[in-house]
Amino acid sequence: MTTTQPRPAVEIRDLHKSFGPLEVLKGIDFEVGHGEVVCVIGPSGSGKSTLLRCVNLLEEPTAGKIWVNGVEMTDPDVEIDSVRRGIGMVFQSFNLFPHLTVLNNLTIAQRRVLRRGRAEAERIARDNLERVGLTDKADAFPAQLSGGQQQRAAIARSLSMDPKLMLFDEPTSALDPELVGDVLTVMRKLAEDGMTMMVVTHEMAFARDVADRVVFMDGGVVVEQGPPQEVLGAPRHERTRSFLSRVLDPTHVAQLGQPDQSPEPPQPPRLPADDRHNL
Amino acid sequence: MKLRRRQRERLSLWLQYLAFIAIIAVVIFAADWGRLREAFFRVDIIESMFPTIITVALRNTILYTLGAFAFGLVFGTVLALMRLSRVAPYRWVATAYIELFRGLPALLVLFLVGYGIPIAFPEREIPGGVFGSIAIGLGLTAAAYMAETIRAGIQAVPKGQMEAARTLGMSHFTAMRTIVIPQAFRVVIPPLTNELILLTKDSSLAYVLGVTAQTIEVTKFGRDTLNDRVNATPLLVAGFAYLVLTLPLSQVVRRLELRYAKAR
Question: Is the pTM value of this prediction over 0.90?
Answer without folding.
Answer: no
